């Protein structure tokens, strides 16, 4: 029974590592401002997310209603514990990379919007409201 769970966890860890490498690839594309490459990597990330979800479903089928943390604590198996810790560390790295990518994209979109507003300003005449503030 332990052997099967180890195999499932190693498979899940492998899929998570592949997803992290795709997030790193996305980061490099964002930095290089390669929009078409970013569009292509989004599809790859979606496919990898599906594979990670399938691995997780397989793990949940194996464990049933038992939480993996509780199962590993009760099993007192060092290999399972190490694999579980490795997966948790990997997940934290992925969250950090995803947040970084998201922040960079938001910054670049904000910059692009400001440039567009400078190039093509609004043609509306500014009017004042009853408080003396400019209404836009």
UniProtKB/TrEMBL annotation:
Residues 2-58 form a coiled coil. It comes from the Bacteria. SUPFAM superfamilies: FlgN-like (SSF140566). Keywords: Bacterial flagellum biogenesis, Cell projection, Cilium, Coiled coil, Flagellum. Pfam families: FlgN (PF05130). This is Flagellar protein FlgN. It comes from Clostridium gallinarum.
């Amino acid at each position: 029974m332990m052997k099967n769970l180890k195999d499932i966890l190693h498979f899940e860890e492998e899929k998570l590592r592949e997803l992290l490498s795709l997030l790193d690839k996305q980061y490099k594309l964002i930095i290089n401002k390669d929009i078409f490459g970013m569009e292509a990597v989004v599809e790859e990330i979606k496919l990898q997310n599906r594979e990670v979800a399938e691995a997780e479903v397989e793990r949940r089928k194996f464990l049933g209603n038992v939480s993996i943390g509780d199962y590993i604590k009760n099993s007192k198996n060092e290999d399972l514990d190490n694999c579980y810790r490795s997966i948790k560390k990997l997940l934290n790295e992925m969250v950090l990379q995803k947040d970084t990518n998201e922040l960079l994209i938001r910054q670049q979109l904000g910059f692009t919007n400001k440039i567009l507003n400078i190039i093509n300003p609004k043609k509306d005449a500014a009017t004042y409201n009853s408080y003396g503030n400019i209404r836009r």
